[in-house]
Write a structure and sequence with these properties.
heterodimer; A: Alpha-Beta Plaits; Alpha-Beta Plaits; 9 strands; about 30% helix; elongated; B: alpha/beta; Rossmann fold; six-stranded parallel beta sheet; 23 helices; 20 strands; ACT-like_dom_sf (chain A)
Amino acid sequence: MTEQKHILSILVDNQPGVLSRIAGLFSGRGYNIESLSVAETMDPLVSRITLVTMADTPVVEQIVKQLHKLINVIKVYELTGANYVQREMALIKVQAKPEHRAEILRIVDIFRCKVVDVGQGHYTLEVTGDEGKMDAILNLLKPIGIKEIAKTGIIALFREQK
Amino acid sequence: MKLTGAQILMKVLKEEGVDTIFGFPGGVVIDIYDELAKTDIRHILVRHEQGAVHAADGYARASGKVGVCLVTSGPGATNTVTGIACAYMDSIPMVIFTGQVPTQLIGNDAFQEVDIVGITRPCTKHNYLVKRTEDLARIVKEAFIIAASGRPGPVLIDLPKDVSNTKITYKAPKRIEMKSYNPTYKPNMKQLHRAVKLIKNSKKPIVFAGGGVVLSRGSKELTELAHKTRIPVTCSLMGLGVFPGTDPLWLGMIGMHGTYRANMCSGECDLIVAVGVRFDDRVTGKTDTFAPNAKVVHIDIDPTSIRKNIPVAVPVVGDCKITLGLLNRLLDKEDLGDLKKKRKKWLDQIDQWKSTTPLAYKQKNIIKPQYVVEKLYELTKGEAIITTEVGQNQMWAAQYYHFKKPNHFITSGGLGVMGFGLPAAIGAQIACPKKLVVDIAGDGSIQMNIQEMATAEQYGLPVKIVILNNQYLGMVRQWQELFYGKRYSGTVMEHAPDFVKLAEAYGAVGLRATKPEEVEPVLIEGLSSSKTVIMDFAVEREECVYPMVPAGAPITEMLLA
């Protein structure tokens, strides 16, 4: 069976140690974490963890069950195959030599991102989008020279019925 | 009402019906011990914290109640880890209280500080660090609910010293609600209907029962199912006793050291009704060759057990007892008239396996360990509570003591803890003071918690210890004999103490048998004593446990001698 990317959206008690229970479950059972994003929800007692893992179907079924078993896990949604929106944000520090500045700003324009910091030799860009868009802009910026990058990891939600 | 944390703890423990705590004191739990002495809760002072946890475990397995331990911070806490992991693997309900340094010192590497919540996170069902005395009562109540419900397990509560000795105005917690914890007890009826159909249509079915049936007290329902449908029954190590070992439909244990007929059944059967098991590797052998022709109906309260190791045709998440009860009611409505005839060929085949290849050993003029267990079974009429250590002693106990009832075989199945049997026997004896409790031990593993002899003596517990003494770490030696060219690296253990003198040094009775004809008299004398007794049997040194399935081989490919 082939491994596939799965996005899990996990609602948990907003308490110390809960993230470590989840991370420990993944490391202890040999599952992998591709990306992880955690923040409080509207209810301050609840946090949402969006986690991306690579696994085949039986393994991801087992992961979901194991997560449910943790006392502090309230709900687990598996988003793969469902109708959902996903976004990721990145801050990209790109080398900005005078001859490249126009080119960078053109890319910023096309990808509808923002320049959030400008220096002598760099621009810092704020980009949001799905994975396809992230990959595309990184591919374009790479030849110009990426100095540093920080990404949030994917966050995702179900789409409501129209 | 103004109460300290320690007083609140005692109040809640009383409310939870706790009558016994196994423990060992230390600096940060003095406040709790001070209050404990004012209650009528019995404290059993062990000699090592590992003993406290195994004793609480044995108490829980024998009584079906939640076992409770209390230890101090740091080394007291770390010493409990093996016992906790053992209880976690075998799903035993327990609550473990560990002391902790005062909250303002946590994280400072204070004296006897250790992050026990971090350490035990992967081997507890849940754990807590109590940071405010106000939360204590609620947390303790939650812990008892979590430990005993669903798939049971150990829950650890870490209690900083200031949480125990701070006085607050106590308000009893309201109804305990855990929005994220809600085990499924009632099964999906649609799946049960599918199971009924498979049971009716199968020609060569078996029931495979495990510890989940013990924990849910579903032995009666399981026996009813087997009799009603004429399906032969095998058990995992953890399930022994849920089906009478004397019943004609009994197959014996399945797995690495299972009986020939049970293992052959798994290869030939067309249906496995699996109840409260998790298809551990010691049961399945090589998974892709396990039960190649069988559809599997898997009943378990823990969804993660289902489809973890083998494919399942009918998954049923629910409590074993409730589910088996409902399954029996559904079967009552069916016409099962011809099942007796239909199963005849299958049962005849099993009888043939049984008669050609029974569990057996060759009697010689040297004591055979199997003979000791067989004699023990005869003399106790199969009524004793048996605990074991881990290794050959455990397997011979499982093979040659034919358990009739659940909660009578107490063994470290999942984790395989040497040193489990003696403290577990102590706990079982405290839970069942009138019962005969026997620890079947090896000379290696008995030494891992031998210090608990003093505990048994201190509380006048008449536990009986049967040492099958071969001066080897026998199970590993057996593997070395069979698969490592008889190179006995690290398994020769010729410097054991004189166990008779050792028993006497603890104030107990010590007996020894070195010839087969001495076995019975020694057992009779030892078992009839009202004291703690060690019976040391000098057994054939290089005896092996058979049948044996080499690790990773198909379960039907057994070494028989």
